Amino acid sequence: MTDGLSEDSTLGSLTPRQRRSLTRVRSDRSMIATLALTGLIAAFMQTLVTPVIPQLPHLLNTTQADASWVLTATLLAAAITTPISGRLGDMYGKRRIVLLLLCIMAAGSIISALSDTLVPMVIGRVLQGVGLGVIALGISILRDVIHPKNLGGAVALVSATLGVGGALGLPLSATIAQYFDWHVLFWLATVFGFVAIVLVATIIPVSTLRTGGRFDLPGALGLAVGLVGILLAISKGNEWGWGSAITIGLFGGGVLVLVGLVFYELRAPNPLIDMRVAARRPVLLTNLASISVGFAFFVITAALPIVLEAPVTSDVGLGLPLILASLCLMPLGLVMFVMSPVAARLTNRRGPRTSLILGGVIITIGFTLGIFFIDQVWQVVLISTITGLGIGFAYAAMPTLIMRAVPPSETAAANGLNSVMRTLGSTLSATVIGVILSTHLIVTDAVATPSREAFAIVFAMGAVVVLAGVVIALFIPRRNQNYDTASIPVQRGV
After folding, report:
1. CB of 274 within 8 A of CB of 441?
2. What confidence category does residue 5 fall into, taking pLDDT thresholds of 50, 70 and 90?
3. Do 118 and 68 contact (CB within 8 A), yes or no?
4. 357: phi then psi, degrees, rounded to nearest 5
5. Which residue in 469, 170, 473, 467 sits closest to 332, CA to CA?
6. pLDDT (tens digit per residue) in 457-488
């Protein structure tokens, strides 16, 4: 990717064509719409294979345990590469790296579409996971190119795409999986990927705000090794055994590597993650609170589909087919989209700290209802809607809190780290929920399903975790040093 810039242009010398490109007025709305659509497409990759998960062992001629790598590989790839791509974006241009990630994501979709065995499918899903970094980079681009008065709403909208993409993608994927060959899912993802590439290349301006220095390869390798160890141990611990040597070794080794990485980054001349910035109170507390929000998001996306699809003869099931169940979960994402302007206005008037706290309180209310009321379809839809409202407020607040506390030259890397914290929360949630639901079973008509008590425990635990995040958010400073963007002002008007 050349991103329209020659090597000399990074030193301040632009060709006439590049000057015309940079001075061409672009509509804020077109740039926001482009980055929001790109986020939707990336988020769609997460729920892409959900409808065919039960059939994956047969489709790929493998075991159930090995087939789970189709999901795990995407999670690991996204967690590892998002902060790395953020740092690369700060150094070499965010638009350039977004285009690179989209190309990688499209390549992964093609590989998966041509796969009938496990190994190439996992490789394709890894490449698709790499593409998820475009959401954090898209939010960072907004800071550089959007007029300040439009920035809050734009950040809230793009942040919401993570939930909206999943909410819209699940029924779409379910419909395709039911009526067409399952490979069509990945060909559709390929088309979406190329659409995003064309839109970004056409509408998003060249990134002019860049940091100097060299890429911190040892830091990137250390981050990758540490995160792989911890996330693998958490996600596979129930399968491998929590007391097994491999689980303990991976988790302990990952922690030690990350601790060593902190000391290395403090001394590195061009650190991948500026630990002094990451340790600032607003950044540190926001990242810790983000873990609870990521935890909450997966509680809903993991627990409610089981309730909706389990047989009516079970302790808690409502017996809906996959497509109808997917439609019942759509409010989770749609309310995040619809309420993003409201979340932005609250953030502008009361500050992002208030939005984060309010979001946590609303999620807690939704989870509390889930403890007692999941016996009717309308109750599940209500819980999904309330929780989506709270997650929408929280997602709108977190990037703004981060961007207000870091200089413009570190926006993408800081947002990437925040994304990792949410992924860590979701991974913890998936593991804990899996343990609870698999250890509280009731057998009805020779079919084992989680008990009503299991879901009550899941929602109660989710409420406690989110309340802990609210308490952490209360200690985020109301005021801190604000950084103004130093990027080129693409548009000064509305």
Report:
1. no
2. very low
3. no
4. -65, -45
5. 170
6. 999 999 999 999 999 999 998 775 555 544 44
Q: How far is CA 67 from the centre of its chain?
A: 22
104 vs 129: CA distance, rounded Å = 9
Rounded-to-5 percentages of helix, strand, coil across the chain: 80, 0, 20
Q: In angstroms, rounded to a whole number, what is the distance separating the alpha carbons of residues 49 and 386? A: 26
Give Cα separations from 331 to 328, 403, 437 (angstroms). 7, 29, 24
**Cα(458)–Cα(403) distance, rounded to whole angstroms?**
33
The one-letter amino acid at 356? L
Q: What is the CA radius of gyration of the chain?
A: 22
| Number of Cβ within a 10 Å radius of residue 42 | 30
Backbone angles phi and psi of 3, in degrees to 5: 60, 20
CA distances from 455 to 170, 304, 311, 365, 458 (A): 22, 9, 15, 16, 5
d(CA 239, CA 391): 30
pLDDT tens, position by position, 377-397: 999 999 999 998 998 888 888
Instruction: Specify the residue for token string 């979701």.
Output: 426
Q: Cα separation of 405 and 283, whole Å? A: 7
Residues 6+ apart with CB under 8 A from 287: 278, 417, 418, 421
Name the amino acid, one letter, at 403: M
Closest by CA position to 257, among listed 298, 222, 308:
222
For 123-187, list the strands marked E by DSSP.
none
Whole-number Å distance between alpha carbons of 94 and 210:
9
For 40-76, the pLDDT digits (tens) are 888 888 778 877 777 888 888 888 778 878 877 888 8
Q: Are 33 and 142 in contact (CB under 8 A)?
A: no
How far, rounded to the nearest angstrom, does the alpha carbon of residue 251 sit from its chain's CA centroid? 22
Estimate to the nearest angstrom the gap between the alpha carbon of 191 and the chain centroid.
Answer: 21
